[in-house]
Amino acid sequence: MLPSEVSGPVQAYIEALRGDLGHQLAGVYAVGSLALADFSHRQSNVDLVLVTDPPLGLARIEPLRRHEKRMARGGRRAEVWYTTWAEIADGPPDGPHDGPDGGRAGTERPAAALATPMTWAILRNDPLAIIGPDWPVVWSDPEALRAWSRRRLREVVDAAHGLLVMRHDISPLVLEVARLAQIALGGKVLSKSEAGETLVGVVAKHYRRILTDSVGYRQGAQFSMYWGPFERKYDALALLRDVAELAGAGTAPGPGTGTGPGSGPGAG
User: Fold this and answer.
1) Weakest-pLDDT range from 13-17, 217-221, 261-265
2) 195 pLDDT exceeds 80?
3) Last residue of a domain, one of 125, 140, 155
4) Do 120 and 221 fall within a single domain?
5) Is residue 256 in a domain?
6) What proportion of the chain, given as a percentage, has pLDDT over 70?
C-alpha cells in the first residue's frame, strides 16, 4: 500500500496515463523506498516502473512526462522507467546490445535512471504492484547485481567531495553507500534504513554514531548526535572509504584524506 502522502498524486498520474494510453498501459510498479517500506518524508521521491504493451517509442514517451510533475515532492522529481514485459524478463542490455544513447539497441526508448540491476532485483523480490500481476517474470543474475553494486559504490565514494556539512546531504549519502555495500556483500537489496542499521553490526564501533545519526535523520529525528557539522563530515567520509574497501570496491585515498575516525579533508 502506498503512503497516504503520495497515493493521491500517483493515482492522479495513472488516471492521466489511462487517458493517453488506454489499454496500452499494462503495468505500474512502485520500486525504491515505496516498495521496501522505507518511504521518508525528508528524503524519498516517487520511483515507478511503467510497463506498456506494445512498447512506446521516444515520440510517445516524451509527451507523457508532463504528468510526472504532479508526483514531485519537496523539489525531488519522480523517476519513471518506461519499459516492456520483454525488457523486464530479459534484463539489462550489455555489450553489443547497447544502443548509442545507453538504451537498448533497436528501440527508440531513452536510457532510464531506474533501469539498473537493483531495480530488477526489487521487481523480482519485492514488487509493489499498482497495476499488473503481483509477481511479474523478472530477470535475475545475482553476480551481475553484486558487480554492479561494487561499480556504483566506487562511483559514489569517488564523487563524495565538496562541503558535505549539512545533515540532509550526509544522511542519504551514508545510507546509499550502506545499501550498496550490503548488496555487494550479501547480494540482497535492503531499504536504506535497514542497510544502515545492519551495517552497524559489521563496521568498527566508532562508525555506529554516523550510521545511527543518518538513519535517525531519515526517519524524522530532529536532533543530531553530533555537536558540529565537520565532525559528522569527517566520520562520514572515513566510513565511506572503509565500507568501500570492505565491499571490494576500494578507492585510492585523495589528497589530505585519512583512514580513521575524525580524519578527512579539511573544510572546503
Assistant:
1) 261-265
2) yes
3) 140
4) no
5) no
6) 86
Nearest to 72 by CA among 43, 45, 35: 45
Report H helices in the chain.
Answer: 4-21, 58-64, 85-90, 117-125, 142-158, 167-186, 192-199, 208-218, 229-246
**Separation of first and last alpha carbons in the chain:** 43
Distance of CA 244 to the CA centre of its chain: 17
Cell triple for 260: 580513521
Do residues 10 and 119 both lie within one domain? yes
User: Which residue in 218, 102, 81, 240 sits closest to 159, CA to CA?
Assistant: 240
Number of H helices, E strands in the chain: 9, 4
Alpha-carbon distance values, 37 to 1, 30, 147, 189, 214 (Å): 9, 11, 25, 12, 17
Pairing of strands 47-52, 79-83: parallel
Chain-centroid distance of CA 147 in Å reads: 16
Could you tell me if 178 and 126 lie in one domain?
Answer: no
**The three grid cell numbers given for residue 211, joined into one nine-digit string:** 550510521
Number of domains in the chain: 2
Q: Are 231 and 248 in contact (CB under 8 A)?
A: no
User: Which of 44-58, 90-104, 185-199 has the weakest average pLDDT?
Assistant: 90-104
pLDDT for 111 equals 72
Q: What is the value of pTM for the model shown?
A: 0.85
The 10s digit of each residue's pLDDT in 116-148 is 999 999 999 999 999 999 999 999 999 999 999
Identify the residue whose cell numbers are 531506474: 114
Domain span at 128? 4-140
Ramachandran bin of 59, using left for φ above 0, alpha for ψ from -120 to 50, beta for the remaining angles: alpha
- Does residue 267 lie in a domain region? no
Question: 265: which 3 cell numbers?
Answer: 579533508
